[in-house]
Write a structure and sequence with these properties.
Blueprint (H helix, E strand, L loop, with lengths): L1 E10 L2 E11 L15 H9 L6 E6 L7
Antiparallel strand pairs: 1-2, 1-3
Length: 67
């Protein structure tokens, strides 16, 4: 399961993500759509730990190893 609680990302004084809450069950397939520059890639960078959010939590459970 992937859970994001109150994630906020600001760049250059502009909110890309403002208090987002998402819960995705393990094994689910989800797509994110939106215009250019709206924070889709930034959102995934928060999930992978490449960047930190201003506030909020990212919780990942039931990790599966690829063999």
């Amino acid at each position: 399961m992937l859970v994001l609680n109150d994630i906020t990302i600001r760049m250059a004084g502009r909110f890309l993500i403002d208090r987002a809450n998402v819960a995705l069950p393990a094994g689910s397939k989800t797509g994110f759509i939106g215009n250019n520059g709206t924070g889709k890639s930034t959102f995934f960078r928060v999930i992978t730990g490449d960047i930190s959010s201003e506030n909020g939590d990212v919780l990942i459970s039931q990790k599966h190893e690829l063999v």
